[in-house]
C-alpha cells in the first residue's frame, strides 16, 4: 500500500515571518494526518519553518536545487546544502522552472540523481501544455519526460522518487483536470515506470496530481487508484490545505 503524500508548493510566497505565522496557524490541525504532508517553502523560510514544525510529523521541502555540490553558480543552492540543513524533500523540474528558467528534461534528470545521492527525496514534476493535450500527445510526452527524468536511477532509488503529474493548463487556472483525466495520466506514468523497472517498483512509486487542487476536488482525485496525493499550489497558502491534507 502506498502512503499518500500531500505537498504544498508555496512558490515565491511567505518570507520567514509570514511562513512561520502560517505554519503555526495550520500545523496542529494537519499534524497526525494519514498522509505524509510536506510544506515546500522558499529557501529563506526553510529553517524557520522547520523550527516551527518541530514536534509535528509535517516535513519541509525545497522548491529547487542545483545539480552540482558547489562551485561558481551564483545564486544557486545545492542538494548537498539542503541535506546539511536536514531538508528531506525537494521539488525538481516544476513547469514554472522549465518555462521561466530553461530547465529541461536533462537538467531534471541531473538534479533528480543528485538529490538522491544527497539523501533527498525528489518530487519530480512532469506535465503537458494545453496544446499538447489537444494534439493528443499527452501520454507520449509524459512517457518521454518520465523516461529521461529516471535515466540512470536505480530501482532502489526510484522508490524514493515522488512523481508529480501537473498538467500545465491546470496550474493556477482554477481548471482542475477531471478525476478520469488525472487518473489516465498517472496510470500511464505508472505503466512506463513498470517498463523501465518492473511492476513491483512501479507500484511502490508515489504519483501525485497537481493543478488547481482545491478542498472540493481533492477527495475525488485522491480516491483514484493511481493518484497517491497532490502537489498543491494556491490552496496550500490557505486554511483549505488542512482539508486537502485530510482528504
Ligand atoms: P495551483 O494549485 O495553484 O494550480 O498550483 C499547482 C502547482 O503548480 C503546484 O506545484
Oligomer: single chain
| Biggest pleated-sheet summary | 8 strands, parallel, barrel
Strand order in the largest sheet: 1-2-3-4-5-6-7-8
Q: Output the radius of gyration.
A: 17 Å
Structural class designation: alpha/beta
What hetero molecules are bound to the protein chains? 1,3-dihydroxyacetonephosphate
Strand proportion, as a percent range, falls in 5-15%
Helix content: 40-55%
Give an overview of the whole structure.
The chain has 247 residues and is of the alpha/beta class. Helices cover 42% and strands 15% of the residues. The protein is built from twelve helices and eight strands. An eight-stranded parallel β-barrel has the order 1-2-3-4-5-6-7-8, surrounded by four helices. Helix 1 packs parallel to helix 2 (46-52) and helix 7 crosses helix 9. The longest helix is centred in the last third of the chain and has 18 residues, at 179-196. The mean pLDDT is 98. It binds 1,3-dihydroxyacetonephosphate.
Summarize the structure.
The chain has helices at 16-30, 46-52, 79-85, 95-100, 105-117, 130-134, 138-149, 155-158, 179-196, 199-204, 218-222, 240-245, and strands at residues 5-9, 36-40, 59-62, 89-92, 121-126, 162-165, 206-210, 229-232. With 247 residues, the chain is of the alpha/beta class.
List keywords for this structure.
8-stranded parallel barrel; about 250 residues; binds 1,3-dihydroxyacetonephosphate; globular; about 40% helix; 12 helices; single chain; alpha/beta
Helices and strands, with pairings:
Layout: E1 5-9, H1 16-30, E2 36-40, H2 46-52, E3 59-62, H3 79-85, E4 89-92, H4 95-100, H5 105-117, E5 121-126, H6 130-134, H7 138-149, H8 155-158, E6 162-165, H9 179-196, H10 199-204, E7 206-210, H11 218-222, E8 229-232, H12 240-245
Parallel strand pairs: 1-2, 1-8, 2-3, 3-4, 4-5, 5-6, 6-7, 7-8
Helix pairs in contact: 1-2, 7-9
Bound molecules: 1,3-dihydroxyacetonephosphate.
